[in-house]
């Protein structure tokens, strides 16, 4: 719950920032010279890019949470079997062992979104965020029956 509050607080701050930057862009365009119009248009592009990124990130998080709830209802969420250091961090060797198991499961059932979801969690535990995101995107696409690119796990 705390993560959601932080996310929405940061999203609200970003929206305020987008509005402020957008207003500056409009003010520059209203100056009417070629240079200020060019700068104004350039500044206006930034809030649109930021809004698109915020939308995509929020959509991804909602979709991943939807899959997590469905998998939890089925009793298929991965069990936390990771060894942790005294400080609470995940032991690298433990994460690698779980990852190898999840990768093998995914290779055995490459069209099952559940295995890709569990693989994404294993990537995340192994601190490989880019691959975790790609695996989760693939799980979402398979769940929603959208076309997926042929990539190796």
Automatic annotation (TrEMBL):
<keyword id="KW-0812">Transmembrane</keyword>
<feature type="transmembrane region" description="Helical">
    <location>
        <begin position="7"/>
        <end position="29"/>
    </location>
</feature>
<feature type="transmembrane region" description="Helical">
    <location>
        <begin position="35"/>
        <end position="55"/>
    </location>
</feature>
<keyword id="KW-0472">Membrane</keyword>
<dbReference type="InterPro" id="IPR011990">
    <property type="entry name" value="TPR-like_helical_dom_sf"/>
</dbReference>
<keyword id="KW-1133">Transmembrane helix</keyword>
<protein>
    <recommendedName>
        <fullName>Tetratricopeptide repeat protein</fullName>
    </recommendedName>
</protein>
